[in-house]
Amino acid sequence: MRRSMAVRWASMAVCAGVGLLLAALSAPPAGTQEFGFAAVSISPSTLKGGAEKGTTSQADVERGALQYCQQSGAKDCKVYSVVNRCVALAEPTNPVPNHYGTGNGPTREGAASIAQAECTKGGGIDCVVQLAPCSSDDVRWASPLPLPPGGKRGSVDPALVGLWKLNVGSGIWVWQISVNGTYTFHSEAADNTLPHDGTFTASNGKYTLHSIVSAWDDQGTYTLPSSAVIVANGKLGTGTWYRIEADPGYAEPGSEPASKR
What we know:
mainly beta, 3 helices, Lipocalin, globular, about 10% helix, three-stranded antiparallel β-sheet
């Protein structure tokens, strides 16, 4: 699976010094005063694809998404694009040719929910959203993913719920921990780190993390020097995360994670 800017999940992303490689705030689509475009591509036979977004033209964005798909050698690539909206692509956990779903909507969660439903309707089993770009996403970074299903309300220390950042050399990493026991992560640094998401539990100073889109599991300990700081110690080391004050339009997700996809 390819994404705009050709960023890849790499070992350096895992070596953050802490296994909490989390989070992303779902950005709304671009406002009506300016046109933005987003597209996903997919090869039905190989399920290889990609995503692109930008403000140049819809044709340029579609061409970019198509090129990511064609670079895999696929000959049957299709493109799905939107204007001032979000578009998503979902595939089964174990890929099967012609089993996938796409969707679009005014929010990342809405587009992802439709894509996942279409994938399941088409015969896909355990469909997972792989790509979910919005027309308003910053072109410098890979688009974040929406919060996943599979969490359990009450499984996360309330003090950890919210948006957090980890300072890295070229920018920041951002994670969102939800009250429903899920997380999502994206990088706003030039470090080739892809967004990912999964389930998360934390209580009594201990945490566990499981990514549903990459081969990563971790467990460790955490302390809270203040309400705005988490110091987490995982199997790869220690990291200090700082709370990000939520944007005015941000609302903490509720207890129905399935409705988010």
